[in-house]
């Protein structure tokens, strides 16, 4: 009887003090990451739909571009604003992993939907030109800062 009681007390302690009705922080982080991935795919789809409507090729997703887009999105969030800082280094890094003819990028922030981000780029001559460029591959990184604002980086390249 004493053995059962000695075993039951720690089990009961763990059960009583480990249960919570609030979502775990890890679950919240996972859900946010999943939402960002969905938004990234939506941006890619909107840009590709636009390109196809113009008779241009669909852009293929690139893991390499995604890696550098993510790093730049993190950089902009840490800096607290939009930038194309270190673009030449990103382009060179992509070129060192896969031989490319040209690289370009679009950045944005504070758009809540893929369509809003696309429309912001569409209304900008330079961003629109990039979306319509002779590229073959792309990747989009979307993340939120601590205030809940979305930051976007889309990298394009031509093999």
Question: How does this model look, in words?
Answer:
The chain is an alpha+beta fold. The chain has one domain (37-158): 3-Layer(aba) Sandwich (Pathogenesis-related Protein p14a), CATH 3.40.33.10. 57% of the residues lie in helices and 17% in strands. The chain has helices at 2-18, 25-53, 63-79, 87-97, 114-122, 125-131; strands spanning 60-61, 102-109, 137-144, 150-158. Strands 1-3-4-2 form a 4-stranded mixed sheet, sandwiched between helices. The longest helix has 29 residues, at 25-53. The N and C termini lie far apart (74 Å). Mean pLDDT is 86; it is low at 1-21. One of its GO terms (molecular function) is peptidase activity.
> Any idea how many domains?
1
> Would you tell me the structural class of the helices and strands?
alpha+beta
Overall mean pLDDT:
86
Residue share in β-strands: 15-25%
User: What is the chain-wise order of helices and strands?
Assistant: HHEHHEHHEE
CATH topology title: Pathogenesis-related Protein p14a
Strand order of the largest sheet: 1-3-4-2
End-to-end gap: 74 Å
User: What is the percent of helical residues?
Assistant: 55-70%
The stretches of 5 or more residues where confidence is low (pLDDT under 50) are: 1-21
Q: Report the CATH architecture.
A: 3-Layer(aba) Sandwich
Q: What overall form do the CA principal axes indicate?
A: globular
Highest CATH level, the class: Alpha Beta
Give the CATH superfamily: CAP
GO biological process, one term: proteolysis
Pfam families: CAP
InterPro entries: CAP_dom, CAP_sf
GO molecular function: peptidase activity
